[in-house]
Amino acid sequence: MPGILVIEDEVAIRRVLVKILAEESKEYEVDEAEDGVAGIEKIRNNDYDLVLCDIKMPKMDGVEVLEAAGKEKPDIPFVMISGHGDLDTAVHTMKLGAYDYISKPPDLNRLLNTVRNALDKKELVRENKRLKKKVSRNYEMIGESKAIVQIKEMIDKVAPTDARVLITGSNGTGKELVAHWLHEKSGRAKAPLVEVNCAAIPSELIESELFGHVKGAFTSAVKDRAGKFEAANKGTVFLDEIGDMSLSAQAKVLRALQENKISRVGSDKDIKVDVRVIAATNKDLKEEIEKGKFREDLYHRLAVILIHVPSLNDRREDIPQLVEYFSGKVAAEQGMGAKKFSPEAVRLLQEYDWTGNIRELRNVVERLMILSGEEVSESDVKLFASK
Fold first, then answer.
1. What is the pTM of this model?
2. Hey, CA dihedral for 348, 351, 355, 360, is it positive or negative?
3. Helix (H), strand (E) at residue 32
4. Residues 6+ apart with CB under 8 A from 291
5. Strand pairing of 50-54 and 78-82?
6. 3-state DSSP: the chain helix, strand, coil percent, rounded to 5?
7. Nearest residue to 208 via CA among 183, 241, 178, 231
8. Over the stretch 180-231, which tens digit does the pLDDT of each residue have?
9. Cα distance between the two ends of the chain
């Protein structure tokens, strides 16, 4: 049941509000405070879903309460209660973050509609945060090895900037995790992170995928279509496996980085874009430059910051923690009980040659979880995790 705090110094108005919310709606748990000082104290000590707050009060007025609460618990929506002469101030409080205001004396329907809408918004914000946490957990970087600690420290330094980052490493090492964390910890986190797997898109379609096209640009272009750069405006474009991008597409990416504008395939109209570019590759781009397969000028544009993700064989000390993490995920996904890996089983996994890196380890853990008994033993590993 949602909790609502009513902060109002006029006893009659406060009682009316409490009665409407607690008795007539029967949907809310309603608390009350006689002034702003008492209200802030209750906000500090309780988790309310909504606050109704008078603007003109002794000791501490509504604007001061709103500002103080914003520092303590910024996610609580405020509905301000305004007298006839307080309308300008009420509008000002909305600029400060209040959800809405209602006038005295309160109209029943207006009050209940405003309260419901404010609580609906609070629930949407809560759900959005829950989903973001879920996404963050899906892209969690597991491990405390020296190499992983250094990567985490690098991310913390680089993420708040708009510096371009080139992530290198073998397939399956977790380059996409680094890209996601760079975005999540950046000032662009509220905008999209748009991923493009350059190796999975045919060379003749990569330009359309990145920059969009206009109707008639090619046979199947039956209507105008925005590309990934436009979709990521104000956010981040992650160009995975950029070493597989065609030279013609590389030239257009270079122009986008140099001029912050793109043009759709079949159009000469420039479109301004504001994106941060993060790229990743499993290739040695300097070798690709020598072979004439990658533009040196694009490399230098992308490689402002270089982050190398080590292979699993180079961070074996992280395997026990990774096994525990993946076994928990597999248990949740498969709807099965948690299984413990014996110390001998984990030690044997640490000795394997993980050519497929983290991705391979995850698959092996899932296989062992499904095929083993109540505990994953050393013999289970020898039987089911063999190459």
1. 0.67
2. positive
3. strand 29-33
4. none
5. parallel
6. 50, 15, 35
7. 231
8. 999 999 999 989 999 999 999 888 888 899 999 999 888 888 888 999 999 9
9. 54
Domains defined along the chain, listed by start: 3-135 (3.40.50.2300), 140-310 (3.40.50.300), 313-384 (1.10.8.60)
Residue type, 374: E
Q: Which two tokens stand for residue 223?
A: 């209507």
* Angle of the 146-158 helix axis to the 175-184 helix axis, nearest 10: 40
How far apart CA 211 and CA 245 sit, in angstroms, is 14
Cα angle value 141/130/2 (rounded, 5°): 155
Q: What is the pLDDT of residues 342-375, one digit of tens each?
A: 999 999 999 999 999 999 999 999 999 999 998 9
pLDDT given at position 131:
61
CA 168 to mean position of chain CA atoms: 22
Report CA-CA distances (Å) from 67 to 42, 54, 64, 187: 15, 14, 5, 23
pLDDT exceeds cutoff 80 at 126: no
